[in-house]
Amino acid sequence: MTKPLILASKSASRRAMLDAAGVGYESVPADIDERAVEAGLAGASPAEVAEALSVAKAAAVAELHPQALVIGSDSLVVCAGRRFDKPLSREEAGEHLRFFSGKVMELHSAAALVQGEGCLWSHASLARLHVRTLSEEFIEHYLGLEWPAIGHTVGAFRIEGPGVQLFESIDGDQFTVPGMPLLPLLGALREEGVLLA
Fold first, then answer.
1. 5-191 CATH fold
2. Rounded to the nearest 5 degrees, what angle is found at the Cα of 77, between the Cα atoms of 6 and 104?
3. What is the pLDDT of residues 154-176, one digit of tens each?
4. Domain ranges of the chain
């Protein structure tokens, strides 16, 4: 590896993807005000917002580690034209799930590479998750299993856990759903000489 690589995230699923792909990195979570970043993005599409947040997270960590190549990543969920953030309580997670029931959830995942003050690369991808009709009994059982772990996730689910039971089908790249467009990111890391071509 020619330069240090940092993941500006504490996300277990993003770390697991990089680990499984054999990428060596250090994890340094970014500390940014996401709402403040979004305030300057009026009229932006969900993909553009996810990409901008990815860049902002990477830039915040790159400022502290100017020699490193920093990966930023972000995901956001839109369903029936409404944007959803991470649920703040078990009750709110239940409200989200009731809203998603029987609808298509759009999950936008983005990643960016920043070094010093420059964004070298960014990319956003989309997955469409078809949520089955969820009974109240299932929702309560599911929250009993998964809360508070899903409080750290947009969409109130972990696809690698019981959250897979929410869906009838999924359209999109398998890596988009856990929160990072991994294949394009690996390509960008090869371009930067971090991974062997």
1. Maf protein (3.90.950)
2. 135
3. 999 999 999 999 999 999 999 99
4. 5-191
